[in-house]
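Example record used in the benchmark description.
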Amino acid sequence: MPLRINTNVASIAAQRHLDKSDRRMEHALKALASGNRIVQAGDDAAGLAISENLRGQLAGLRQARFNSENAISLIQVAEGGLNEQNNILIRLRELGIQAASDNVSDVERGYLNQEFGLLIQEFDRIAKTTAFGNKRLLEGTGERFEFQVGHQAGPENVIEYQLDADSTAGTIGISGLAVEDQDEARSTLEEIDAGLDKLAAIRASFGAIQSRLLMTTSNLDIQYENVSAARSRMADADIAYETAELTAARVTQDAGIAALTQANTLPSRANMLIHGVT
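Model output (structure tokens):
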């Protein structure tokens, strides 16, 4: 092999391979440190674009799920108020039956009527104060709600609900009822039973939309899980692979340093020849 002084080709080649090993080790270290397979766009330009699109989709799905859960919370607030109103109606019916019997005197009916009237006031107060934020839920406002439960635009990603629930005492039909005497007490029973039916219809409407929102939330959970898995396969670092790459790069780097050391001694051999001639 010819010996040259000005150009050490072996050293240049060793430096090139050593630089390649350095880049390989640097990439493995960045991947391990960040947990990302793609540490720079040049690693996989198409994969980066797709994974970022999936990341945006995941953010949208996560927020859509929050929207759905908040919508369920709104319905649950209304349902909680209706449940207490239902309990009041049942108590009113109990008082009516008690007042309709001759085993109580007119004085005792007066006591029963006092509780009866206060419970009707509380029934109406619940209807007028049950709210989610600044939205009244049981006054029959007729407000239309639009819940964004998808990660994209379009009507298929929106659930609409017409809030026409009106459980005020006047609408339910118990306003002005009393149990001051036996006949009046008996007549209240039909009104209370009709009120229970009206309240049940309102609760059924809330139950239906709540059931739909629960199914929507479950579907969003499934989508989020599957999209997350797809993005993980594309963007997340394989720790076992990157560790093997790091180990291999270090071994190659050590070998490259040794080779470079040997290559750098070649010009000195040519110098030995020169000194031998002289």
